[in-house]
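Morning run. Coffee first, then this:
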Amino acid sequence: MRMVGRKILIVDDDKEFLKELREMLILSGYEVTEVSDAKAVVRTVRITKPDVILLDLRMPSISGFEVADKLKSCFETSNVPVIAMTGYYTLKEHVWLMNFCGIKRCLKKPFNPLDVIAEIENIVGKKNE
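And here it is:
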């Protein structure tokens, strides 16, 4: 069962990747907001109130770990689940940091679009239990 109408925020500095992921999620029935500047994430989350955040871990100005930590420490954004996306970090090496920052799951790039949808549905389903 797809969570049609759920709001997803994608945070990634790769604009081509953002466009492709955005289109795939829209075609799957999600409402999508995208941010390419990590510094704007907390403000965007406060405004859009997404159900899930897909967050790139390696960005130029602020790392995804720092963004996740800021989201976790802010009352308005602390309950929004974060799914990390990375082509650089390994879960085994960074699991403690992801847990510390409140990251719920991690997808290794490149990934299958169906894996993204499965992770979103899994997280949103647990959030609503």
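The domain at 7-124 is CATH 3.40.50.2300 (Rossmann fold). Good start to the day.
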